[in-house]
Amino acid sequence: MKTPTAHLANLDMNLLVMLRELLRERNVTRAAERVGITQPAASAALSRLRRHFADELLVRAKGGYTLSPLATQLAEQVEVVCSAAERLFAAGTDFDPDASQREFTLLLADYTIAVLGPTLARAFQERAPKVRLHLRLVRESLATDVADTIHLIDGMVAPPVSRFRLPGLRSAELFRDRWVCVVARGNTTLTGDRPTLEDLATMPWVVPFHDNEGYPPAAPMSRQLTLFGIRPHVAVRVESYQAVPYLVSGTDRVALIQERLAGQVADRLGLRVLECPGEPEPIVEKLWWHSNYQEDPAHIWLREMVVAAARGLSSDHKPDL
Known about the structure:
By secondary structure, the chain is of the alpha/beta class. The protein is built from twelve helices and twelve strands.
């Protein structure tokens, strides 16, 4: 019986790269171009992968290919494995951002991308034009697996919570924000600048990452409502922070969103931004990484870039209240 090590030694690691590109592109010709091989060689690799998994993986459909159910499951896994392999073989005592072509993977929420992403992208373009960024969107539930996840990525941006108190986990504060209420400008239920808890308790809500099954919910916005003593009438649940203001615009709904995000979209979407009642918890966003990367030159550079990008954020982000 072969040991796991023997199985690994017999694997053709080139097939991992080919699998990633085939699942990304859903097209044999484009996958071949990305890897730098001929189309027949890519077709042969797909045949080997199909035999290995005993699955079609790419299923012919009108106008192209779609992913089989197994391929959909493999797509996320192969991204993680390839990223981990790239980090492993890129490790060393030196790191030259001008010449490096490595890829860094950061896990963060779409709200954080809206706030920090443009500044970070510009900094990478200026300081390390060949280095690639892979920004993976985090779901609230994914953060519960942080002990395993943090080994497979270069860093994660998230607020501090109790489940992050793990051996080997390091962090640095990036920026702070606060919760505000948003309603459509035509909303007649809330007319003042600061709604009361009684007002909010009777209104339909848009909430991100809200679990109808558990109470009290763990998602940050839902946690604030719990602290306010409000069990909201949830009109819309959505797996995104950035989508929330769009689902409030032009309706009688209300939502809590981050002030920095409100400042970006309120005028464009016709929203009024109101002070929250009570004393909501401050939003503290941190960069998290595993201590295994503490002294690695590439990861030191990455952390410096992310922290510097956060320090470069404008403090004048407040919308008109």
